[in-house]
Amino acid sequence: MRGWRAIYRRELSGFFFAPLVWILLCLALFYHAFFFLYALKRFGGEVNTSLSILLGGWPFWVLVIVLPPLLTMRMISEESRSGVLEFLLTAPVSDTAVVFGKAIAAVTVMATILSTTLLYGVVVHALGAPPDWGQLLTAWFGSILVAFLFTALGILVSASSGTPLIAAFFAIVLNVIFVAAPLAGAPTGGLLGDALSWVLEKINVISHFQGSFLTGAIDSAHVIFFVAWIAALLFLAVRVVEARRWLG
Amino acid sequence: MITVSNLTRRFGPFTAVDDISFSLDKGEVVGFLGPNGAGKTTTMRMLTGFLPVTSGSITVAGFDVLRDSLEVRRRIGYLAESVPLYPEHRVEEMLLFQGRLHGLARAESRRRGAAVLERVGMLDRSRSIVGRLSKGQRQRIGLAVALLPDPEVLILDEPTSGLDPLQRIEVRSLVGDLANERTVLFSSHILPEIEAVAARVIILHKGRIAADGPKDALVDQLGGETFVRFEGVVGPDAEAARKLLSTLPGVASVEDHGQIGIHHRFRVHGTGDLREDVGALCMQRSWAVRELSWERPTLENLFARIAFEMEIAVPDPENGPGVTPPPATAKDGPALGRLDVLETPPAPPPQASKMLYNLNPFDGGAERDLSRPKPGEIAPETGSEACPPKGETGDGGQPSRELEA
């Protein structure tokens, strides 16, 4: 794993040298501002509810479905085309460090985007309506885990596809399936129905997130749910990068 | 330093590298040569650990490329053909990144970065953004990045492609400098590069090693024939001259390569440099000499022979575009439109075809009857001798012929 920090720093500076991240940050700010103000009006100035809309309502899920694929789409697919991947994979760092460094860089950007919620917390605190900081920070931490999961998925897709555009498209589709399939629910009864509902329960990100983090509780079971998914997806991504070597 | 044994790499049914073995000693500079698709890049990628091998083994500095991949990568500086650099970064950032990948401290990276930039002559561009540099500059930055960790082994895939001739010379001398300290394996399909830098050459062809050894020995053994090229005026009886040349000591055979104008061409095969002997004969016989040169095989010949898998004759300037024996009928062809006007009925065919001189190969040329003086020269006694071109009756004919001559 030595060397992942070099990759991380490179990726992060690469992000901020390109216009895409600035555009995304800017749009996310408007997006958050719009929904925060809307929620404030709708819930009659209820600060905690309005903030948890940003970190748990549908605007949040749209954000974490769409943004991570845009951040990760270029990471491996484009570098493979331009040959930079060849440079990284012949540098004295392991494939795992390369994938991990990239993932952490994308998660850092996502965390930055999501921390606008904290900013609003500070603002309403200063204006005399202190939010529930414990719940807010826990929800923020949980939202980063959710973003990490989708980032890992995005990197896996980027490693498997040839062009950034394809990578972004398939990553978004997979994210939607990940989130929407448990909502749709499984047909009840029968062996197939049981198996399907068992699978859906295992990918039910929303309930794992809303059941604990959003209510202000850090439950190790739910943390492990996310960590396990992230580790599995990153492991697969490393294997796919390795497979790219075999393809030449 | 590098030991490769029975290396094979397949891509599906296609075998890119087929059971090759070689080894490089410390401090050796080896040129990797081969036509496109011969397996050079594949082999280099396997050496760096980028591509896994299908079978066989590679050790670099005592470490197995597959088992101790990181140790090997730490010791190899690799410049891929595509010159992988992040276009959005500044040159110095790219160098710092490489330093961090190799675990160097920041200050150390900076110090070495300045040193390698100076070495590739790009010290003044350290603040430039990589994406805005020209191809040649990027190539040199790529080299600087590869050199930064001070690797024991340098693997350079086409390091001079895209460079202008001046930069090529610089890179060449750079690689030459490195030779004393490091093991360098570099590929190129530009033969003078290899000839200038590498003492040893490995020629790959279709995934196999076609030749491996010191450059000169290879060229002498496999490069093709050695002969003395002689061209001169030997009088009307070329066959007699050929026989006379054959009698010279050391001469094995003499080939008559025909006649251009009044000059006859011969190839004198034999042992060693026979130029002086031929020259002495010419002096004795009062033959006017136009060319007397010693043709030796070059790496180029060797390469061509291997690449085309056949006996390739030494490039033959005599049959080049400069001189063509124009067939008599060519005069009627549309290519000689201007001359059609000048010389309407065909001149006596056999004579004319032998004695015509084609000066401009591109438009069929101005053809001059060699038995007559140059137009413009006054030579009354030869003027009527041989086939006067009938076209001369036209007034416009003479000046234009003069121009061409």
Summarize the structure.
The complex is a heterodimer of chains A (248) and B (405). By secondary structure, chain A is mainly α.
Detailed description of the structure:
The complex is a heterodimer of chains A (248) and B (405). Chain A has 248 residues and is mainly α. Chain A is 81% helix and 0% strand. Chain A has helices spanning 4-17, 19-42, 47-54, 58-72, 77-82, 84-89, 95-114, 116-126, 133-160, 164-184, 190-202, 205-211, 220-247. In chain A, helix 4 packs parallel to helix 9 (133-160) and helix 9 (133-160) packs parallel to helix 13 (220-247). The two termini of chain A are 23 Å apart. Chain B folds into three domains: 2-221, P-loop containing nucleotide triphosphate hydrolases (Rossmann fold), CATH 3.40.50; 225-296, Alpha-Beta Plaits (2-Layer Sandwich); 328-404, no CATH class. In chain B, strand 7 (153-157), helix 6 and strand 8 (183-188) form a beta-alpha-beta unit. The radius of gyration of chain B is 30 Å and the shape is elongated. The N and C termini of chain B lie far apart (63 Å). Mean pLDDT of chain B is 76; it is low at 310-368 and 379-405. Classes of the chains: A mainly alpha (248), B alpha/beta (405). Chain A binds chain B through residues 2-3, 5-7, 9-10, 13-14, 17-18, 82-87, 89-94, 245-248, and chain B through 11, 42, 45, 48-52, 70, 73-74, 76, 78, 80-86, 88-89, 93, 97-98, 100-103.
